[in-house]
Amino acid sequence: MRVLVVEDERVLADAIATGLRREAMAVDVAYDGAAALEKTGYIDYDVIVLDRDLPKVHGDQVARELVTQRSGSRIIMLTAAGDVDDKVEGLELGADDYLAKPFAFMELVARVRALGRRSAPPLPPVLERAGIRLDPGKRLVAREGKEIALTKKEFAVLEELMRAEGAVVSQEDLLDKAWDEHIDPFTNVVRVTMMTLRKKLGEPQAIETVPGVGYRL
């Protein structure tokens, strides 16, 4: 899941981002509304955690812009005001959910996950291809009935390959889905992750390298 955290309190923004990354999400951060609109102009986020009271461009205007652009991103609005009128106003601006500060972090995680499921196209509960069975809900992978332990990044890469249903997935797409904007586009992290993933999946090799294009399962 790709998430954008928009919060002008830098300590809080960075803490939220760190926590969501520990939940296996790819997270970017913007500290004001203008930076948020810039990022959403070229990155498709599944969920945007949007503080309402932002400098440069107010959070309300950010929400309006995203609705005008018909963005597919789901918005959870954060605010220090938690009365009913504020919640109604936020939802009418285009937010999908509303959370008043202070909040329990695990509640935020649950809400982000719920919105992420709504933003994603319907998928079968279990993905199967080439003798590999991947359960996104339980985060389990097995090949020919034998369970395989994968890291979060290996799981994310394999899930993207299986969702492609035999189509080639580029390194750029894998970086976009499984990592975040701070990753060096010239890094070899995809190649290294692919190497360890192939080793864990075993023989016969299920992942094919398409030179100059990407990878296919």
Automatic annotation (TrEMBL):
Domain Response regulatory: 2-116
4-aspartylphosphate: modified positions: 51
Cited Gene3D superfamilies: 3.40.50.2300, 6.10.250.690, Winged helix-like DNA-binding domain superfamily/Winged helix DNA-binding domain
Molecular-function GO terms, alphabetical: phosphorelay response regulator activity; transcription cis-regulatory region binding
Keyword presence, Ribosomal protein: no
Pfam families: Response_reg, Trans_reg_C
SUPFAM superfamilies hit by this protein: C-terminal effector domain of the bipartite response regulators (SSF46894), CheY-like (SSF52172)
Protein name: Transcriptional regulatory protein CutR
